[in-house]
Amino acid sequence: MDEIAAALKLDPIEFRRKNWVQAGDLMPIAPLLGEGEKETVITVPLIESCGLNECFEQGMKAIGWERKFEAGWHEVPGKPHLRRGLGAAMCMHGTAIPGLDMGGASVKINDDGSFNVLVGATDLGTGSDTVLSQIAAEVLGVPLEDIIIYSSDTDMTPFDTGAYASSTTYISGTAVKRAAEQVAEQIKERAALMLELDSWHDIRLENRHAIAGDGRSVSMEAIGLHSLHQDQQRQIMATASFVSMDSPPPFAGQFAEVEVDTETGQVTVTKLVMAVDAGVPINPITASGQVEGGMVQALGYGHCEEMAYDETGNLVNDQFGPYHIYRADEMPWMQAILVQTNEPTGPFGAKAIAEIPKDGVAPAIANAVYDATGTRLRRIPFTPQRVHEAMHS
After folding, report:
1. What percent of the chain has a predicted confidence (pLDDT) above 90?
2. Which residues pair with residue 150 across a beta bridge?
3. Does 38 have pLDDT greater than 60?
4. 83 and 132: one domain?
5. Tell me: the pLDDT tens digits for 174-210?
6. What residues have CB less than 8 Å from 87, skipping those under 6 apart?
7. Does the pLDDT value for residue 77 go beyond 60?
C-alpha cells in the first residue's frame, strides 16, 4: 500500500483511508479464509464494528506523525550518518475459526453464595481464567472473588477446541456468559419463591443480592442455602456451549520510528505505537499487556531473529546470543492504545486481541526505513547486512 501510494504521490495513510473498510461494509474475503472450513461460511459477512479511523487518529498523534513533514526532521543533529524515519501499517485479523471452534462452560452456585465456573479453555498466561471469571461475575452481579474457576482439566471440565486462533474470550467467553445467564434466571426464580412473588422477571442481580422491583432483596448466600437445604431443594447450575459462524475482525494501526545507520545498515527501532480495536476489552490491563508483548515478539521477528543454516542444512545459531532476542534494556519506547468499539456478536461487545499485535510491526518498520533512506526492504529480519545491501544495490 505504501508503494502504491508513493507511485501515486499520495500520503500513505490518506491512501489507506480512502480504501479501508468501515462498519456496515461486506467482507467478501471471509469465505476464502479459515483452515479448510470454507464450506461453513455460506454468506458474505457484514462488518459490524470497525475502529480504524480512531486507531489511526490516536496512533498518529501518539507517534508524532506530523514530524515527518518537518524540514530537517529526518536528520540527526551531529550524526550525519544517521537517518530517522516513520512508518505505519494497517492490520486486520480474525476472531476464532467460524464453524469450527467451540467452547463449553458450566456454572453452579455454592451454599455460601459463591460460584464454581468450569471451562475447557486453557489459560496459557493470557489471563483467560480472569477474563472468563469477570464475565461470569458481571452476569451474576457478584464481585470477582466470588467466582471459583476450574479450567482445562478434561476429567471434569467441559470441552473446548483449544486456546488458539484468537478465540478464547469470544468463544469460551460467550459459553460462560450463556451458562451464567441460565443460572441467573434460576437465581431470580428462587428469589421470587423466597420473597413470595408471583414473577421473577423484574428481579435484578446486583452487589451479591437478588433485588426485587419493590426494593426487597435476598443475598446470594441465602439463595444458595435455600436452594440446597430448604424448600423445593435443587442444585442451581447450568451448562452451555458456543460455536460461531461469525469471525468479527479486530483492526489496528501500527506505527514505528527508526534510526538507520547509512554506513553499517544498522536499524534501531526507537518507538512503537499500536492502536487496536478489539471491541470492548473485558480486562484492559491484560489486553494492553497482550499488545505490548505481541509487539515485542513481532519486533524480534521483523528486526533480528533468524534461524541460520549452513550449506549442509545444520542450524548454526542454536543458542541465545548468536540467535538474538531483545533484552529488556534494548526495548524501544512503546505505547498500546485500546480503541473501544462494540461488537454485537461478542460477549459484552468483545472480539479478539490475541494475535493482531504480531501483524503490523515488520511492515511498519520497513516503511519507516523507506521513509528514512528511500530503500525498500523485501525480506525479514532487517539485519544490518541485509539493509546495507538493499541501500547499495
Report:
1. 90
2. 118
3. no
4. no
5. 999 999 999 999 999 999 999 999 899 899 999 999 9
6. 2, 255, 256, 258, 363, 364, 365, 366, 367, 368, 369, 370, 371
7. yes
Q: Are residues 114 and 145 in the same domain?
A: yes
Are 126 and 234 contained in the same domain? Answer: yes
**pTM to 2 decimal places:** 0.93
Instruction: Determine the angle formed by the axes of helices 173-195 and 128-140, rounding to 10 degrees.
Output: 30
Separation of first and last alpha carbons in the chain: 23
- Closest of 355, 349, 277 to residue 21, by C-alpha: 277
Strands annotated E in the chain? 75-76, 79-92, 102-109, 115-119, 147-151, 204-206, 209-211, 217-219, 237-243, 251-261, 267-277, 333-339
Q: Would the CA dihedral through 339, 340, 344, 346 be positive or negative?
A: positive
Closest CA to 24 of 373, 344, 376, 372: 344
CATH number at residue 197: 3.30.365.10
Q: Are residues 60 and 152 in the same domain?
A: no
Q: Which of 175, 209, 243 is the C-terminal boundary of a domain?
A: 243
pLDDT tens profile 287-320: 999 999 999 999 999 999 999 999 999 999 999 9
Amino acid at 329: D
